[in-house]
Amino acid sequence: MMRRYQVRFGHFDDARREYVIDRPDTPLPWINYLGSEAYFGLVSNTAGGYSFYRDARLRRLTRYRYNNAPFDLGGRYLYVRDDATGDYWTPSWQPTQRDLDEYECRHGLSYTTIASARGGIRAETLFFVPLGETLEVWRVRVTNERDTAADLSLFSSVEFCLWDAQDDATNFQRNFSTGQVEVADGVIYHKTEYRERRDHFAYFACSEPLAGFDTQRDTFLGAYRGWDRPAAVERGAAFDSVAHGWAPMGSHHVKLALEPGETREVVFVLGYAENPRAEKFDPPGSQTLNKRHVRPTIERWLRPETVAEGFAALGAHWERLLGGFQVATPDTDTDRMVNIWNAYQCMVTFNMSRSASFYESGIGRGMGFRDSNQDLVGFVHIIPERARERILDIAATQMDTGGAYHQYQPLTKRGNNDIGQGFNDDPLWLILGVAAYLKETGDTSILDEPVPFDNVPGSEVPLYEHLRRSLNYTRERLGPHGLPLIGRADWNDCLNLNCFSDTPGEPFQTTENATGGSAESVFIAGQFVLAAKELAGIADLRGLGDEAAEYRAAAEKMTGTVTEHGWDGGWFRRAYDFHGRPVGSGENDEGQIFIEPQGMCVLGGVGLDDGLAVRALDSVAERLATPHGIVLQQPAYSDYRIELGEISSYPPGYKENAGIFCHTNPWIMIAETMVGNGDRAFDYYRRINPSVREAISEVHRCEPYVYPQMIAGRDAPTHGEAKNSWLTGTAAWNFVAITQWILGIRPELTGLRIDPVLPAAWSGFRATRAYRGATYEITVQKPAGVTGRVTHLLVDGERVDGTLLPVAPAGAVVRVEAVVTGPAD
Amino acid sequence: MMRRYQVRFGHFDDARREYVIDRPDTPLPWINYLGSEAYFGLVSNTAGGYSFYRDARLRRLTRYRYNNAPFDLGGRYLYVRDDATGDYWTPSWQPTQRDLDEYECRHGLSYTTIASARGGIRAETLFFVPLGETLEVWRVRVTNERDTAADLSLFSSVEFCLWDAQDDATNFQRNFSTGQVEVADGVIYHKTEYRERRDHFAYFACSEPLAGFDTQRDTFLGAYRGWDRPAAVERGAAFDSVAHGWAPMGSHHVKLALEPGETREVVFVLGYAENPRAEKFDPPGSQTLNKRHVRPTIERWLRPETVAEGFAALGAHWERLLGGFQVATPDTDTDRMVNIWNAYQCMVTFNMSRSASFYESGIGRGMGFRDSNQDLVGFVHIIPERARERILDIAATQMDTGGAYHQYQPLTKRGNNDIGQGFNDDPLWLILGVAAYLKETGDTSILDEPVPFDNVPGSEVPLYEHLRRSLNYTRERLGPHGLPLIGRADWNDCLNLNCFSDTPGEPFQTTENATGGSAESVFIAGQFVLAAKELAGIADLRGLGDEAAEYRAAAEKMTGTVTEHGWDGGWFRRAYDFHGRPVGSGENDEGQIFIEPQGMCVLGGVGLDDGLAVRALDSVAERLATPHGIVLQQPAYSDYRIELGEISSYPPGYKENAGIFCHTNPWIMIAETMVGNGDRAFDYYRRINPSVREAISEVHRCEPYVYPQMIAGRDAPTHGEAKNSWLTGTAAWNFVAITQWILGIRPELTGLRIDPVLPAAWSGFRATRAYRGATYEITVQKPAGVTGRVTHLLVDGERVDGTLLPVAPAGAVVRVEAVVTGPAD
């Protein structure tokens, strides 16, 4: 299939909550995620990807080769062979890339189907992870659409990873000698290192009687062959190979004789299991894997009715998750992102943090302290109980100084010493995360939960005390201008003002900081104002009025400091460097204006009263906004600046060096709503909305259903090209921007506010929102062309002044009407 | 080309010192090494492999994908295209795998040629790294053997690695945005991160005018294509792509119009260069790579005459290196290994240690303290000056306790904290390495060289003091039986008697050791006896007779301890475990006998007087010897034993768990010569001699010209299959076993000994040996069928009693005749 660019490579099927990919050769692999609890998988539109249990590095089930050529190799590959002619192909197109007469991939919510046909043989495969299980199901339906009988072979294949993905890819002098499998009753068990310290194994089973199997990759493929032409498939017979070392894999060979019009369903199950240590072997004393515990699970999931029920349950699960918040606006792109894809992406960030995507190899990063607090604002309304648990996990990695590990390990929940501490914005994010949780749930009991410092037993204090220390951490670390010290970095991990690295490859975030100077962050200052006000509100909830007043005073004071030292004349400065020189100022030759402080200062309320906010936002519009989104700073740094760090290590227009770092864009959208500019807010929203950008898929290249971390900025030759899709704080913040600030359905500590700031052209919208147990059916009316705000609500027909909904009893269904009034546009 | 096993896949061309591979689809990639100073490359028989500058992890020039399918992808690929028909192929077979009418790869000493023909077009490529340069040359000769003119395109290709091979393979969220190149005057410059902290870059140049070029991999290949069918080659025209991010690569497109019979030579040069920091850019202040310094080098090496001279110089270099020691024996396999391949492999271990091979991914390991000392005994006679430097580097990583880092970093020469210390055999290897150096060179000045501890300036003491501390390190660390404590491990890194690891994936060598017990090593005891005697000899050289006597007494005492507590009745025990239980004893259910102490104790002289040595060696023959070599222990451990560690983590028959760990086999060969059993010594020698095993290449699978680390033992289903070729101490020790002990040409502190212990069937041999500046032309005569020893020598016709040659003046050429006398077999 020769590559020709076209505008779209698929379309949205909103009714089924699916993105439908019409051709396999998308500009980049367009992926989806399977699993939502402990067993996870990535799957691309051509069946590429891999699976893991909990930890993408340490419990990798299947092998994937990042950055290979062809891209996206390693996956869940099925081969169909016409045994009469020897013709064979992969219904997922990859890896054989044989022409398909039809092809359709549907990425849904935690499942993917790939359907295709060649020569009158149709194959449709559904991939999903059943709830409550640590396995994935491949349900394959093969249909003979010919008018003659067909003798077919179906081969499955996965290549096993030897568990630790990092070691697996580097330690060959050991790993080529350790691989072990068992094949029993048609089930392939991958048990490398099970003989020694592992008590876990993988299994790969098939619902049909086997004509054969393979477990040694290079036997199945044949010497010097790739996945595009396995020898077993080519000859039409498995080798029944048993792997001893080298590369264990799993392949079943099933023969299918299909009458014209006949469909056969074959189920494959790939799973992960653990045995109790004392029961690893059966019989005891042998080296034979104990299969007693896992066999019933395998047998159950090979049954078509179990699969059908499991898939239905998954659908019901997502209906429950998403049904609590649905909107109907004049804008289709808004609706499908809010109702389906943006919420879905938020849930994926909950599951994955930044660990495993097409750009995150799954071996490098733990859970980010800052990342997870931000992700939380996107999923707290969907899974409040798990958000609660996540908050307590995060807070337990905080130090008694209020400082925090920048990352923690998902398996141990311990702080990660490799990356360390000293990212001085981190503690404040905990306040913002907890505030979001409280606003959504009203569950103030979390504030009294005993939470240790650095996970040290006995050090527990109430969570509320953690929040106090978070705020104090900043207050105790102010620089010469009274602005917060930046430490290793603030939100922008790549603005490293104390690092001064001149050694190639040295990590900017962990290299020992220089001493003697004191770099300060205006961003953290803005964030502090916001966090102090949030904590004041929380203190009020606890009846701590004096403390609340103190926090508000601190916020006020910092607001003054920002106004005095953080304002550059037309926008907020970014920082002061190690030597006290401004960063993000007209005084600079490059990097004169940064997006982050314009957003965060306004979010904190700085400049709302005195016009600075409007001026800053106008500067953003003038200097940073592009048709593809708002770039991080301008002008881009054309050379490396040792006093700024990693930001200037990127070529201009990429990543932090004046790329469109999408995470920051919703801050500006929110700020625009705060100054009442709904048109500009919504315009920005649409510039990076992936559904909108679907129309330029040949430019955007990444998936049109989820946000990327970055779109190349105007200084890049590839301006408009997205990278690093899926795992980004962009998801959470855009969800907040569109739902809470543009649509204006905003949880607050005391209830749900309805305060939309809409584009003039809109004529209102409707929404259903579950909130603290009640369901609100919301209608916002607005004459098209009018800009303005809601001044009062009708709640079940009763007028309520202002925009704050009274909290309804759990189980109630409340009809809310709001009218936007204001001047015509 | 369908794979059919055959016995051989090539043949030796001893006259040219080449191994000639006759078909591309060898059982595994059969590789060679380019470079011998700072710039290195691996190259397989199908042009797979990669290049690096000094450090295979941190300065990786080109990208290679280990354990890919097909195996061995990433390399120095040329494509020839017949522009009249569009037919294209790779003369190296990979990656297109198009059928070739002829194919021949010749691996020579630091160079490789791959020649092939298809459709009347012949292409022969020579790859080598010129002496004194940090670049590699590809000299391509394309010949039109048709009787009509041919219009051809030639495309080159390399894929650049973004320098740090580990980061390159994992950190995609950054690395997909950093790639940068320049193309100027037909030269492709890879300069990723040069804009920031790097002052080095790669270049790829071509001697011919270009029809086009490519630098972006996925443009050159086309979307979803691999190296087997690049879009640029398929269409016959490069895209002139300039990489911005993603995957920078280099490809030149050259058009060749060849008359019938015409040959054209095209030279490609791939190199590494650094610029002074102050002169990185040209013009200064720009971001344009300064090419002034490198351009003359590029121009020079694109000239055919430079290439011819450089290749001739490389040949002369190897003639110098190898010419100093050549033998002519009745056994061709012995001759070619001693004269060519074993010596060559020793030189490769000098260059690579254990860093980069087809099994060592180049990112995991530094220079081993123990490894390097052992490698040294294989190359000290070839490059004594560099051996001297290596010794001083190693010794400088020793601690003042006498202990040593187990590894040190090749770039910094600092001890590696990741792997740490506590391998209690390490210090003794320093004595053995220095002894080997002194025996070869007589250069006692090295003993007075000031050498620091742990590289701390000011801590220098004479090297001799390091040796004292090495010996004392053992003496001060004895266990309850008076045997040396084993620490983390002794020579066998996988016998971890203090580790007790039950956590999956936990490294056995770095996990904190248990305390309270005291595991002891019989192996170190034997090694101590050997080292103490060697140090005594060195002390004598320094006139320290008392000290020498003390060391000999210590050796004697330890010999008694071994005899008392290390003897199991029929063989030497291996160790005592943490709880004081014997390991490698008839008392054990498995692991009853280990090879290592049988070799090392006898090497130390233990058991030579009282018959224990003979009994131990008979036990080896009876219990451990297989037709494929001698296994490490028997019976193999069938299950994991937490008290033994990694050794039992391998499936039976692999690696340390009863694999044929080839490194240990020459110890037994030497021991057999020490008890006068030349037949058995030589029999063992031939069992693992790769040249002998060439005849069973379909079983052995690894290269037939170099030793592997391991051959699967009798407990493995793949018994006889080799793994981990090239980088192994096997090379050095086998060279010592055959040359010093079987052929008996053995350097000693006081001169060269001629004391062969030959197989009965031999009728003598001849040798040329350079030694301390003189050249000895040695003839050993022996009636076939006789076993016995040399009793006296004829030196230039003069009788010398005994077997020690008087040291001749430098420059002298000495004729030596020796006669073996003894009983008929």
Could you explain the architecture of this structure?
- 2 copies of one chain form a homodimer.
- In chain A, the strands form 11 sheets. Chain A has a 10-stranded antiparallel beta sheet with strand order 1-2-9-10-11-12-19-16-15-14, with helices on one face. In chain A, strands 6, 7, 8, 13, 17 and 18 form a 6-stranded antiparallel beta sheet that branches.
- Chain A is built from 20 helices and 41 strands.
- The first copy, chain A, is globular and about 80 Å long.
- The two termini of chain A are 50 Å apart.
- Among the domains of chain A are: 27-319, Glycoside hydrolase, family 65, N-terminal domain (Beta-galactosidase, Chain A, domain 5, Distorted Sandwich); 354-476, no CATH class; 745-821, Maltose phosphorylase, domain 3 (Sandwich).
- In chain A, α7 (332-352) crosses α20 (730-742).
- With 825 residues, chain A is an alpha+beta fold.
- The interface between A and B is large, with 80 and 80 residues.
Any chance you could write out the topology, listing elements then pairs?
The structure is a homodimer of 825-residue chains.
Chain A: E1 10-13, E2 18-21, E3 31-34, E4 39-44, E5 51-53, E6 60-62, E7 77-82, E8 88-89, E9 102-107, E10 111-118, E11 121-128, E12 135-144, E13 150-163, H1 165-168, H2 172-175, E14 181-184, E15 187-190, E16 200-206, E17 212-216, H3 217-221, H4 231-235, E18 248-258, E19 263-274, H5 295-301, H6 304-323, E20 325-328, H7 332-352, E21 367-368, H8 369-379, H9 384-395, E22 407-408, H10 426-441, E23 450-451, E24 461-462, H11 463-475, E25 520-521, H12 522-541, H13 545-565, E26 575-576, E27 582-583, E28 593-594, H14 595-603, H15 612-623, E29 625-626, E30 629-630, E31 633-634, E32 660-661, H16 665-674, H17 678-688, H18 690-693, H19 697-700, E33 708-711, E34 722-725, H20 730-742, E35 745-748, E36 751-754, E37 764-771, E38 774-781, E39 789-795, E40 798-801, E41 813-821
Parallel strand pairs in A: 38-41
Antiparallel strand pairs in A: 1-2, 2-9, 3-4, 4-5, 6-13, 7-8, 7-13, 9-10, 10-11, 11-12, 12-19, 13-18, 14-15, 15-16, 16-19, 17-18, 20-37, 21-22, 23-24, 25-26, 26-27, 28-31, 29-30, 32-33, 33-34, 35-36, 37-38, 39-40, 39-41
